[in-house]
Amino acid sequence: MSTTPLALQVENATVRYGLVPAVTDVSLVLAKGQITTIIGANGAGKSTLLNAITGVLNLEGKASLFGQPLDKYPVEERVGKGLVLIPERRELFSSMTVEENLLLGGYTQRGRSASTIEGIYADFPRLKERRKQGAGTLSGGERQMLAMGRALMSHPKVLLLDEPSLGLAPLIVREILNIVVRLKEAGVSILLVEQNARAALKIADTAYVMENGRFILEGTGAEVSANPRIEAIYMGGH
Ligand SMILES: Nc1ncnc2c1ncn2[C@@H]1O[C@H](COP(=O)(O)OP(=O)(O)OP(=O)(O)O)[C@@H](O)[C@H]1O
């Protein structure tokens, strides 16, 4: 039995679209203040699992947040409990400015937004420079920073990050993942879903490899990246 307190635990979870399972019998742990990653190819079921943890999709099995069963909380209450998803498509309001997008992320905070926003600008100076710019005109990396900044406005304790590196150049990927590490150092527990196995495994404490809706391998980030099969399938040629 591990003595590390768990931020998030999923036990024997299955998620279906209609009758068809997209995730089958997966179990994972995310320890407090750590990074757990799920790597896997397109269509493996990674986003489906994240959406089931947020409650948008039905999760058959057990999931708990800081030891409390998640099904106690309806979807709309989970953000208030500190569980926040940054979706793969980043889902910003393109016609609004950077700052307006950030303010929307802080709607649960009542009056704390002004101080929070200054903190976010300190972490993301590039967003501060562009605070009056329309979100629709940002570069891919800046859009990801804004999606992260907006999520941070609600003071997450557990951040679910769906492919933050998607579509970004290697240098920007490194910058984004450095921010993920800084969030961890600030005490946020992070579940990171990635196709970019090499980058994710480098920063992960714990890692799971997903294929066809199931976890086929798990271990520390270092163990999984040293596995010859993973090296060949997920990291060859990069
Ligand atoms: N709304 C849906 N209805 C039916 N099937 C779906 C739906 N969304 C996803 N699926 C299927 O579920 C499986 C898992 O998809 P999912 O998006 O979770 O994979 P993923 O690992 O996140 O991949 P990607 O990196 O491409 O997002 C795929 O076979 C996909 O076609």
From TrEMBL:
GO terms for molecular function: ATP binding; ATP hydrolysis activity; branched-chain amino acid transmembrane transporter activity. GO terms for biological process: L-amino acid transport. It comes from the Bacteria. Residues 8-237 form the ABC transporter domain. Keywords: Amino-acid transport, ATP-binding, Hydrolase, Nucleotide-binding, Plasmid, Transport. Pfam families: ABC_tran. CDD domains: ABC_TM1139_LivF_branched. InterPro entries: AAA+_ATPase, ABC_transporter-like_ATP-bd, ABC_transporter-like_CS, BCAA_Transport_ATP-bd_LivF, P-loop_NTPase. PROSITE patterns: ABC_TRANSPORTER_1, ABC_TRANSPORTER_2. The keyword Nucleotide-binding applies. Belongs to the ABC transporter superfamily. This is Metal-dependent hydrolase.
